Amino acid sequence: MKKILFLALSLMFMISCGGSKQKASENEMAEARELIKAEIEAADEMLRGEQIDFMTVCDSAEFVNDEIHYYYTIDEDYATIDVLKANADDIKENQKKTLESMPSTKELISLLETVGGSLTFDYKGNYSGETVSITVYDF
Fold first, then answer.
1. pTM, 2 dp
2. Residues with Cβ < 8 Å from 59, sequence gap 6 or more?
3. d(CA 15, CA 121)
4. Which residue(s) pair with 135 in the sheet?
5. Of residues 107, 115, 36, 43, the one with CA closest to residue 72
6. From CA 116, how far away is CA 108, in angstroms rounded?
7. Which helix (H) or strand (E) holds 122?
8. Helix (H) / strand (E) containing 20
9. How far is the C-alpha of 128 from the C-alpha of 117, rounded, in Å?
10. Which segments of the chain does DSSP mark as H helices, in order?
């Protein structure tokens, strides 16, 4: 009986508090933004122009207005932007799994959550110039 009462009270408390984390202070958010900015600047320097896989080249990475964007060009001899659009949900889930499996990116995701930001992969076709944006995280 005590366990049921405790569970009910805990559930009521979570509901009344919105079940969410306490909002970060302005100082915590500012520190998180600086860390994200430094990480993305380093990623941009390291990845710019790099062949990521057989069909993807990283053009750049940036952090603006609490949004991280990675920009890629896709070789449309292998996949069109329409194929990426049709598989956006699968791409999003695969990207999440990959990012969450690496300690360094897990920390970046945590910092991004602190600032209430987003992480988007922007793809552009090398022939068509068409684009698709896949937002993996949006806090």
1. 0.79
2. 48, 49, 71, 72, 73, 124
3. 34
4. 120
5. 43
6. 12
7. strand 118-125
8. none
9. 30
10. 2-16, 26-47, 81-86, 88-101, 103-115
Instruction: Give the tokens for residue 35.
Output: 């860390």
Nearest to 102 by CA among 39, 49, 41: 39
Check if the beta carbon of residue 93 is closer than 8 Å to that of residue 75: no
Q: Which two tokens stand for residue 131?
A: 């684009």
Amino acid at 78: Y
Residue 139 tokens read as 């806090």
Exposure string of 96-108, with b = 16+ CB inside 10 Å and e = fewer, is eeebeeeeebeeb
Pairing between β-strand 67-74 and β-strand 118-125 as defined by DSSP bridges? parallel
Please state the length of the chain: 139
pLDDT tens, N- to C-terminus, the chain (139 residues):
333 323 333 333 333 334 445 677 989 999 999 999 999 999 999 999 999 999 999 999 999 999 999 999 999 999 999 999 999 999 999 999 999 998 889 999 999 999 999 999 999 999 999 999 999 999 9
